[in-house]
Design a protein that fits this description.
single chain, alpha+beta, outer membrane lipoprotein receptor (LolB), chain A, 5 helices, 14 strands
Length: 266
């Protein structure tokens, strides 16, 4: 599944309530680097990224993925738990719980129907751009299929992400969202994403995602720390456990009839 997008989906719980300026206060965008040699092509960058993520052979050995972690909102003194569940080829469920269970959001896709529920607004079937977004997020092995997921990518330049050199690539998502991907010039890993676009209410939402602390797990590389910065809230997601090939029933991804969906266990 598109983990980078799932992490941003968590942030959208909080970002939906504000119209964001160009970049987060106190969190400047990655700095543009001086132009030098010719830029690599999109094909070269996505191929290097796929290899850095583990490659096709490693991903082919995986059928399910369960990620458990914590979420922190330092400015609000709030913490919670996150769970991301994916099943090949295109099923997903993510669960966010905050304030000792006072707030819970779930979003799922069973291969045909996309849905979302939370303690504020209840259960909702996703249609249109929201459906397309969920469908994209559910792609299990998207890290090795970026060209398929984002067919109109364009290399735009170079930038610094912290002290790391990177190449920038512009990509477009369903519903009008625009992403800038930052590919590490040395490793090929996607180490940051700038995202901008309308939420379900039409407000413009912008956020910067930083993917850090990559670790090898069952042949693939996973970022165990994800920082999401925006004017609405700065979030830190820290993965604690990653499990692959856990038996998961298809029913957990299905839209509930009325009550919130149950969280999968392993």
């Amino acid at each position: 599944m598109t983990r980078k997008r799932n992490f941003l989906a968590v942030a959208s719980v909080f970002l939906a309530f504000c119209v964001a300026p160009a970049f987060p206060q106190g969190a400047p965008p990655p700095k543009a680097a001086a132009k030098e040699e010719a830029l690599p092509s999109v094909d070269e960058l996505v191929a290097k990224c796929a290899k850095a993520s583990g490659g096709k052979e490693a991903w082919a050995k995986l059928s399910t993925q369960v990620l458990d972690g914590t979420i922190e909102l330092p400015a609000f003194g709030m913490t919670g738990k996150v769970k991301f569940i994916g099943k090949a080829p295109n099923k997903m469920l993510h669960v966010v719980t905050l304030a000792d269970g006072q707030f819970e959001q779930k979003q799922g896709f069973d291969g045909r129907v996309a849905w979302k529920s939370d303690t504020r607004t209840g259960l909702k079937k996703l249609e249109g751009a929201e459906f397309e977004q969920a469908k994209m997020e559910a792609i299990f092995d998207s890290d090795i299929r970026l060209k398929e997921v984002f067919p109109d990518m364009k290399v735009t330049g170079r930038a610094k992400v912290g002290d790391r050199d990177s190449y920038t690539v512009l990509a477009h998502e369903p519903g009008g969202k625009t992403d800038t991907f930052y590919f590490d010039a040395q490793t090929g890993q996607r180490i940051a994403v700038d995202s901008e676009g309308p939420d379900e209410s039409g407000k413009v939402v912008k956020a910067n995602i930083f993917l850090e602390d990559f670790r090898p797990i069952d042949g693939i590389q996973m970022p165990f720390r994800i920082r999401i910065e925006s004017p609405a809230a700065n979030l830190v997601i820290t993965l604690q456990e990653v499990h692959h090939n856990v038996p998961i029933e298809d029913s957990i991804f299905a839209m509930p009839s009325s009550e919130p969906a149950a969280t999968a266990t392993h």
